[in-house]
């Protein structure tokens, strides 16, 4: 029943709305998930397991304390333990910010932290990713998490990210994958029926389904691309404890 309800809400209500109104519900749910089998590195809370979540519901996915998902926990671990960026002075742009990371990054004294989005009420700056309202060479770090599948021109968006990155800066891009992963990224503007779009692209508001060619595709922007998989930087014990999926990739981009 819970899985069906979660799937229904995600398909019918904006995620930013759910993020803002669901906290009391999940605080209550946390009581039933007490334990120490898994740990959220974003808020340092431990549970017997994470809450099931997703349009096609995934087990062990959502932290009921801070609302982080697998990809947020992987991203945070990468920044904190691998790049060690959280210990450095950095001007950070977070595109389409998630509430769990907003709260965390706002507390980091070393960060000059700016959030931006075209529509999200969570963002500081209203901005079109195709035409950013920032000067060249402005940011040390840009985070763009599950955004490019929604935008009209993902390569133009990456070119804008490249433009506003400092010469020694880097970007973190994360995109969803749906199985079976196609060889070539799928795009088809002629599919207008929402149910058909969800079937083909994973969600009705997705404009493409990324394929195995994503690295070559993103390199068209002029960026240098490095793909980081969880098992390349974390052992299996930590991947399990943090509830991270091996299908979540960090795509690190630099000029």
Low-confidence stretches: none
Overall body shape: globular
**Mean pLDDT over the full residue set:** 91
Strand order of the largest sheet: 7-6-5-8-9-11-10
The helix count comes to 10
Beta-strand level of the residues, as a percent range?
15-25%
Give me the secondary-structure category. Answer: alpha/beta
Task: Give a written overview of the molecule.
By secondary structure, the protein is an alpha/beta fold. The protein folds into two domains: 2-68, no CATH class; 71-254, Vaccinia Virus protein VP39 (Rossmann fold, 3-Layer(aba) Sandwich), CATH 3.40.50. The protein has helices at 2-12, 15-21, 23-31, 70-82, 99-106, 154-164, 194-201, 214-219, 230-233, 236-241, and strands at residues 38-40, 45-47, 51-53, 58-62, 90-95, 111-117, 125-126, 139-145, 165-174, 224-228, 250-254. A seven-stranded mixed β-sheet has the order 7-6-5-8-9-11-10. A two-stranded antiparallel ribbon has the order 1-2. The protein is globular. The N and C termini lie far apart (48 Å). The relative contact order is 0.13.
Tags for this model:
alpha/beta; 7-stranded mixed β-sheet; 11 strands; about 260 residues; globular; two-stranded antiparallel sheet; Rossmann fold
Please describe the topology of this protein.
Blueprint (H helix, E strand, L loop, with lengths): L1 H11 L2 H7 L1 H9 L6 E3 L4 E3 L3 E3 L4 E5 L7 H13 L7 E6 L3 H8 L4 E7 L7 E2 L12 E7 L8 H11 E10 L19 H8 L12 H6 L4 E5 L1 H4 L2 H6 L8 E5 L1
Parallel strand pairs: 5-6, 5-8, 6-7, 8-9
Antiparallel strand pairs: 1-2, 3-4, 9-11, 10-11
């Amino acid at each position: 029943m819970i899985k069906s309800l979660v799937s229904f809400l995600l398909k019918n209500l904006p995620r930013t709305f759910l993020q803002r109104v669901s906290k009391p519900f999940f605080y209550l749910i946390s009581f039933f998930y007490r334990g120490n089998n898994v740990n959220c590195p974003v808020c340092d809370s431990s549970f017997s397991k994470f809450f099931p979540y997703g349009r096609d519901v995934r087990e062990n996915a959502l932290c009921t304390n801070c609302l982080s998902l697998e990809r947020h926990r992987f991203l945070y671990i990468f920044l904190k333990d691998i790049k060690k960026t959280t210990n450095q002075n950095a001007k950070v742009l977070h595109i389409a910010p998630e509430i769990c990371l907003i709260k965390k990054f706002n507390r980091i004294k070393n960060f000059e932290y700016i959030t931006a989005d075209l529509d999200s009420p969570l963002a500081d700056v209203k901005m079109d990713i195709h035409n950013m309202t920032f000067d060249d060479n402005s940011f040390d770090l840009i985070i763009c998490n599950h955004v490019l599948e929604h935008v009209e021109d993902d390569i133009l968006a990456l070119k804008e990210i490249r433009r506003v990155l400092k010469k020694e800066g880097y970007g973190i891009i994360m995109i969803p994958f749906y199985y079976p992963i196609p060889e070539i990224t799928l795009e088809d503007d002629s599919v207008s029926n929402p149910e058909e779009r969800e079937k083909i692209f994973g969600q009705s508001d997705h404009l493409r389904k990324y394929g195995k060619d994503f690295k070559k595709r993103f390199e068209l922007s002029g960026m240098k691309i490095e793909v980081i998989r969880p098992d390349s930087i974390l052992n299996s014990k930590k991947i399990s404890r943090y509830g991270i999926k091996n299908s979540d990739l960090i795509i690190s981009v630099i000029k």
